Amino acid sequence: MQGYAANIDEVDFQSLVPAKLQQDRSILFTNISEIHEFHARQVTCMIQISLDLFVFCLFFTFVVSVHYWNAFFDHLIVSVFACKIKLQ
């Protein structure tokens, strides 16, 4: 907050800052607690949901991969035995 308020004093920004804000900086961040609460509730929750979904996708990919490779090796073993039987 102090970093943002410090810009109000810079000469380059004086023309951009309303007179009322130049007189009373406290109105700039009157809702800072609400912004903090919003981020604490909503954004943190969304990050957790995204992380849970990511972990689920990784797990699902691993399970599908394991199933695929198991099926492939099962087929390979059957094919090898089938060829061995044909060759005898």
Strand content: under 5%
Mean pLDDT: 78
Cα end-to-end separation = 83 Å
Number of strands: 0
As a whole number of angstroms, the C-alpha radius of gyration is 31 Å
SSE succession: HHH
Structural account:
This protein has about 90 residues and is an all-alpha fold. It is about 80% helix and about 0% strand. The chain has helices at about 1-10, 20-25, 30-85. It is rod-shaped, with a radius of gyration of 31 Å. The mean pLDDT is about 80.
Spell out the blueprint of helices and strands:
Elements: H1 2-9, H2 19-23, H3 32-87
What attributes does this structure have?
88 residues; mainly alpha; 3 helices; rod-shaped
In short:
78% of the residues lie in helices and 0% in strands. The protein has 88 residues and is mostly helical.
